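Quick review question:
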């Protein structure tokens, strides 16, 4: 399944890059910006990974309608949880604002790069090809009409 491949690539890339940049920020600017950065980065990666997982399950043809309804509710709840964590980070825990903002931006960049790497990897291409074949078979398409 393509979503599993994407999850692996996003998590691998994000863990390495966020860890390295956090250490660099800690050395150069200190503890508060580093904690703000890692908080923003982890929030963004958590949000993206949850989105990839939930949408992957929603698009899975083997999942029942009731389960898809549950995943839809979890998807809406995820948005509320991430917004609440972001609010708590700024108002309750008082993390460094600029560090948090930069962490959110770098986290988003890592999500895009991880999804790109995952979808263009051999595993990703195989998963895409498998999904295309399954859809073609369900639609009754001819094998020679496929790319």
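Suggested answer, residue by residue:
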């Amino acid at each position: 399944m393509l979503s599993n491949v994407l999850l692996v690539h996003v998590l691998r890339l994000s863990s390495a890059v966020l860890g390295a940049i956090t250490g660099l920020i800690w050395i150069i600017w200190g503890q508060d910006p580093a904690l703000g950065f890692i908080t923003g980065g982890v929030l963004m990666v958590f949000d993206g990974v949850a989105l990839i997982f939930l949408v992957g399950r929603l698009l899975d043809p083997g999942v029942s309608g009731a389960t898809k309804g549950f995943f839809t509710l979890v998807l809406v709840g995820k948005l509320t949880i991430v917004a609440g964590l972001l609010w708590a980070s700024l108002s309750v825990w008082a993390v460094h604002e600029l560090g948090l903002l930069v962490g959110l931006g770098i986290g988003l960049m890592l999500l895009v790069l991880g999804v790109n790497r995952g979808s263009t990897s051999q595993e990703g291409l195989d998963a895409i090809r498998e999904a295309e074949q399954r859809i073609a078979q369900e639609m009754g398409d001819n094998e020679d009409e496929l790319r």
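Why it works: Residues 2-145 form one domain. The radius of gyration is 19 Å.
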